[in-house]
Write a structure and sequence with these properties.
two-stranded antiparallel sheet; LabA; NYN; 6-stranded parallel β-sheet; RNA nuclease activity; alpha/beta; NYN domain-containing protein
Length: 182
């Protein structure tokens, strides 16, 4: 499905990929991820999308976002919105679908292959639109988690489905030893 002379871009839905990897019990090594897709074609761009909480002293995602910035990723962020739902629970909303979609559509004329790291069914129309422009689309997510992290119609629309668990040995970080007082 990948050709050496393909102009390739990767689009990572940060929250979605994090949740999928966590459900499979491993962490992503973004340096290895970039190297892997660099090897599969001519990597034009690697995008990473995430919402950030405003006004927090420390955000656990901040070190990753900074590292990605310095290591060749185009990081797209926006402030997450905090609200209280009807049950009185504090919720955070930070959907990056529109930003990812616009970037993918703008880059499409210069791409042969787009790789979407997300299982979000909302991206099905994007895949369809990219395909109409002659871009092949691979989707990376998982069906091995309970429940599966990929929407069935997204998987059907993609030209190629890549099981995230199958990439574990290629792009996964080695598990850390538990820290304890033993």
């Amino acid at each position: 499905m990948f050709y050496k002379d393909d102009r390739l871009a990767i689009f990572i839905d940060g929250a979605n990929l994090y949740a999928a990897a966590k459900s499979l019990g491993f962490d992503i090594d973004y340096k290895l991820l970039r190297q892997e897709f660099d090897r599969r074609g001519k990597l034009m761009r690697a995008y990473y999308y995430t919402a950030l909480m405003e006004g927090e002293e420390y955000s656990p995602i901040r070190p990753l976002v900074d590292w990605l910035h310095y290591n060749g990723y185009c990081v797209v962020t926006k402030p997450a919105k905090e609200y209280t739902d009807t049950m009185g629970r504090r919720k955070v909303k930070g959907n990056m679908d529109i930003e990812l979609t616009i970037d993918a559509m703008q880059l499409a004329p210069r791409l042969d292959h787009a790789v979407l790291f997300s299982g979000d069914g909302d991206f099905r129309p994007l895949i369809e639109a990219l395909q109409r422009q002659g871009v092949r689309v691979s989707v990376v997510s998982t069906i091995r988690s309970q429940p599966p992290m990929i929407a069935d119609d997204l998987r059907r629309q993609a030209d190629n489905f890549i099981e995230l668990d199958a990439l574990r040995d290629i792009i996964g970080r080695p598990p850390r030893e538990p820290q304890g007082d033993e």
